[in-house]
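Methods, example record. To illustrate the input and output format used throughout this study, we show the complete record for SMP-30/Gluconolactonase/LRE-like region domain-containing protein. The sequence lines were provided to the predictor; the line carrying structure tokens was produced by it.
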Amino acid sequence: MLSSFLKHQPGPVRLPHIIRLSALAVGLLGLLPGCSKDDEPTTPTVTNPDRISVPQAAVHPEGVQWDEANKRFIVSSRTKGFISTVKDDSTFAQLADNANLISTIGVNLDAGRNRVLVAVSDMGANTARSTAATLRKRAGLAIFNNTTGALINYVDLGSLPGTTTYPNAANYPNHFANDIAVDKDGNAYVTDGSAPIIYKVDPQGVGSVFFTSPQFDPGTGFGLNGLVYHPDGYLIVAKANTGTLFKVPIATPASFTTITNAAGLSLTGADGLLLTDPQTLLLVSGSQSTVYRLNSTDSWANVRSTGTFATGATSPATITKRGNDAYVLYPYTATSPRFKIVKVSF
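The corresponding predicted structure is encoded as:
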């Protein structure tokens, strides 16, 4: 953008000395980089700000979680791999890093166990860490201590037994660990966007293929994406390329059902999910630049839309709850000079 310049009128200047100096200062500020009228302030003046604009270049975060105890957001990085924190005043700090973190996607804060769980993949966005062996093959779960950032465990999901023996496995040799949900017992569930798999990692760090189904096949697009754990003992899982929602019981995953979209609403591009209460689900559609508020009154057999939030010219990714509010992540592109975390309003 072009900077704004002061316009000077012809004729003698008769302003007092102090006013002349003030005008000069304003003019000089208009010439400084990053001070154009289109830049957003990085330090909000209120708590729970409407938006936090983070001046960090090329981070491209995909996952976001609110950490109430420490009053900060936790974000991933598709291009750098490390895990970082963001305060309301835009302060950005690295929390954790590890050589296994090629691209970090979904993030889950298991606050009761003081753990940060991170889905790890490799689609080539992090050129510093991507290799021929990991490109489009990496699916991992990294678990860190939320206080110290120390690595607790790393589980290579893509090489688990069962990842090559399910029906149609030969058609989906690639892997992409996408999003994470944690149940009441501390078991983590991870979706694979490139293969029709939901993984499970128990509290001791033992991984397994939790469930796979031909209905989860990604086809030529991007398959399983966001998921959440419902306190009644099941997962709600989104499939991005079709916008389908599945209800998958923890105890009997083979009895999963497709949630009927009563309104016939298109949910293609479904990404992050957030359960704000047992009957209300927020769904982020990146391709539609929209956050949908969905409601069910029959234990998620059917769903209807009760509101939308348009994000504008961006592709929102994931969403997190902060008190009574929800905040959605705008990652922008891999080369963007900043990213934003924005309060959702219906």
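Annotations derived from this record:
Residues 45-343 form a domain with the Neuraminidase fold (CATH 2.120.10.30).
Residues 1-38 have pLDDT under 50 and may be disordered.
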